[in-house]
Amino acid sequence: MKKQLLFLLVTILSFSSYSQISFEKGYYIDNANQKVNCLIKDTDRKNNPTEFEYKLIETGESKIATIKTIKEFAIGTSSKYIKKTVSMDRSSESVSNLSKDKAPTFNEEEHFLKVLIEGKASLYEYIEGNLKRYFYSTETSDISQLIFKSYKSPDDKIHKNNRFRQQLWVDLPCPDFKMSKIENVSYKKNDLVRFFTEYSECHNSELTNFQQKRIGNLFNLTIRPRVNSTSLSIRQDSNNPQDADFDNKTGFGLGLEAEFILPFNKNKWAITLEPTFQSYKNEQTSESSIVSGGVLIANVDYTSIEVPLSLRHYFFINDNSKIFVDISYIFDFSSSSSVTFKRGDNTELSNLDINAYPNIGLGIGYKYNDKYSLQFRFQPDREILSDYVYYDSNYKTFSVILGYSLF
Question: Quick one: average pLDDT of 5-25?
Fold first, then answer.
């Protein structure tokens, strides 16, 4: 069993260490305004880049393009960056480093700004470590920073300069917008994306929401029938042991998985919760010199609802196929389940209620078209007789799980 567990762990770590970051269709525009269609390495970067890696053809040599020679680049319809020289305030938001000056301090800097919304009014983002700034432009104005700054008053109280709300009120007017609406906008990506979207809708203007294309569908509900191969061994620490080794037995289970895709790192991480019905019944007969009649009969009748809470990571093969690995912490809720020991004449020696500890599960699977999936999961070393000091049990399950996503 330990060798099997080690093998599965090594397999998962091997997949984790293999980067599935791919080159995707995109383009760049150089300083001479020449547009070049190419393949760009999509790293789903957190910080705004100063360069990117690209290929002219799939089998070609990869090259590096930098901000010195490129004015714009885009990866599919999911992300776009433009080069701009902007006035930026770098005031710290750390409480220990807050300025006592309410006014921002601007410096001219050249950066690739990430386009979030492109339309009648456009929204841009710049991230560098803990520094996060948002910029905007309209049909009649160039790009400038939306101003937000925390600062300390002379009595060391923390205040906020929310001038960005005045900028929105003056530069992005809409007859339907009230001042109360502006006052509820926070200096956060989701709030600003929502506001710029509503502004374009107010003026019946088309827009491109790159943030929406990146996030996609973040929730899946999947029905998951399975075939389980299960074994159980029991040892009693006493002079008259009641031991049993139940052979592997095939059974069936059914789960309903709720999957929540985490909206970062290109949707490669997910958290899942999967209530699952499982049942295991088996009988084992052995010769025993300590039992009258020389025969010991052990029966297990174990039915429960397992609830795996899993962390999952996807590795994309192409647009339709992906491999995933996950690790689960599995809670178990059993009802009217027991292990009984009897003599050959059917006299009961003991009746042990099953109460299982949580355990770990390791899985690897394949998903096609975000609809169909196949997974292998191994659950080692579950203790199911946790109420009994003198009994040790080892319940192991290997599952083959099919999946069909309802939505």
Answer: 56
